[in-house]
């Protein structure tokens, strides 16, 4: 009886081993991505080929004796009134021309590329006119991305499309080349050089390269390219002796690229696009490459 039990146990164990060996490999987990909402769409900033008209400005606001900044639910004054056709209920966008305050290049030629893209504008907020006089109007700050100050540029309100969002699926870290024009991650809306999921960045691909709102952009990097942008050790791709090395030295063109993340295009001008990063698998730096999927 003991022998029979032992045989039975071994048979069961062996059968379990066979079943285990036939188990299919696990399906890669779906990535967690971010969907751009109203604040993302209307606070993303943009790049323009030409300077925006600056005839309408924020000229002051309520309680100016001690206030120099105005935010949501407060009132500001603009230099347009009934003489210019302004009426109660009219809506406006408030923007501000901006640039990196440090102007320290993260990669060689960064400032030159930024200039070639156009003029960078940050979104400040939105106004609704609540009182009108002949030459001026009072407008409530109904939505704000940042504090408003005197001199901010005011433009008639324009709806921005919320781009269609694709369904979440497995992320391909080694996706094949799309064959579409390749550009560069040039700068972010917050001027930080390291970026990740949830950050808005500007790339030097635009309408001239066929980019349009709603397109998805793929960010990638070739290992061993010797880029100055991401932290790396010389020869890390093949030649780190003492930790194992490949028998042959490979150039970056001979090695697979690594896809770092992807984002959706919120705005496109002629030479640039605003991209909201919906997913990142690693930190993305100014100087990394980007292509439209």
Structure write-up:
The chain is mainly β and 293 residues long. It is built from three helices and 15 strands. Strands 1, 2, 3, 4, 5, 6 and 7 form a seven-stranded antiparallel β-sheet that branches. A hairpin with a 4-residue loop joins strand 12 (257-268) and strand 13. The protein is elongated.
Structural class: mainly beta
Number of domains: 2
- Gross morphology: elongated
Give Rg in angstroms.
Answer: 27 Å
| Number of continuous helical runs | 3
The helix/strand series, from N terminus to C terminus, equals: HHEEEEHEEEEEEEEEEE
Q: Let me know the average pLDDT.
A: 85
The helicity comes to 10-25%
Question: Which blocks of ≥5 consecutive residues have pLDDT under 50?
Answer: 1-21
- Biggest sheet details: 7 strands, antiparallel
Instruction: Tell me the strand percentage band.
Output: 25-35%
What is the distance, rounded to the nearest whole angstrom, between the alpha carbons of the first and last residues?
A: 67 Å
Number of strands: 15
Task: Give the key terms.
six-stranded antiparallel β-barrel, seven-stranded antiparallel sheet, 15 strands, 2 domains, 293 residues, 3 helices, mainly beta, 11% helix
């Amino acid at each position: 009886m003991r022998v029979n039990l032992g045989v039975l146990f071994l048979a069961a164990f062996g059968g379990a081993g066979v079943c285990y060996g036939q188990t299919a490999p696990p399906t890669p987990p779906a990535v967690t991505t971010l969907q751009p909402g109203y604040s993302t769409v209307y606070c993303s900033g943009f790049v323009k080929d030409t300077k925006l008209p600056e005839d309408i400005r924020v000229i002051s606001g309520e309680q100016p004796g001690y206030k120099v900044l105005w935010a949501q639910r407060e009132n500001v004054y603009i230099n347009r009134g009934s003489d210019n056709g302004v009426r109660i209920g009219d809506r406006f966008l408030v923007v501000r021309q901006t640039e990196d305050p440090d102007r320290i290049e993260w990669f060689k030629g960064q400032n030159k590329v930024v200039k070639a893209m156009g003029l960078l504008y940050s979104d400040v907020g939105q106004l609704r006119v609540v009182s009108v006089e002949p030459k001026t109007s009072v407008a409530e700050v109904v939505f704000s991305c940042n504090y408003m100050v005197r001199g901010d540029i005011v433009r008639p309100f324009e709806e921005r499309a919320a781009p269609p969002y694709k369904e979440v699926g497995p992320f391909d870290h080694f996706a094949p080349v799309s064959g579409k024009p390749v550009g560069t991650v040039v700068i972010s809306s917050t001027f930080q050089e390291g970026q990740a999921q949830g950050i808005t960045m500007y790339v030097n691909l635009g309408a001239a390269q066929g980019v349009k709102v709603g397109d998805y952009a793929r960010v990638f990097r070739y290992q061993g390219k010797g880029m100055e942008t991401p932290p790396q050790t010389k020869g890390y791709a093949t030649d780190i002796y003492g930790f194992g090395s490949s028998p042959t030295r490979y150039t970056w063109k001979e090695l697979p690229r690594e896809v770092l993340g992807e984002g959706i295009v919120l705005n496109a001008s002629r030479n640039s696009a605003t991209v909201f990063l919906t997913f990142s698998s690693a930190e993305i730096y100014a100087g990394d490459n980007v292509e439209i999927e």
